[in-house]
Amino acid sequence: MGAKKTNKRVATKQLPANQRSARTAAGLDPDSWRDDFPAWRFHMLDTGGPYCWTAITAEKAVSLQKRLAEFEKLRWREVLNQKSNHDWDIGELSRDAQRRLADEFPQIETLYQLRIQKRQRVYGYRIGNVLHLLWWDEKHRVYPMER
Length: 147
Fold this sequence. Notes:
Layout: H1 22-26, E1 39-41, H2 58-72, H3 76-81, E2 86-89, H4 95-104, E3 110-117, E4 120-127, E5 130-137
């Protein structure tokens, strides 16, 4: 008769979850999103407050759609190398923007700004290669420029 087979488990050492780096937890470089193409989510659009999407005109919405489509042809690294496309720490934003985030979106620590045209910007938070759009800023009031 043959020997009885037993299921053997090989013990592996795992770090506690709070000690794993993003690289070891996901098996990826945490900056790998920069080599991905951007994608957009619209589920978090702020429809109240000073930067709400209900104020956008049909003409500007078409311009916005075309600009986002242009960004989709580029990798995040290329998008962020363009003038006026970058991330902001919350403390750098206008006081109104900081208040709105604290009241409505307290979990967000960093916003990304994309220039649509002239003073027009969109803001959102990023998870991986996806930008979750929050605000339409037609007059550059989220981060006021001194003139």
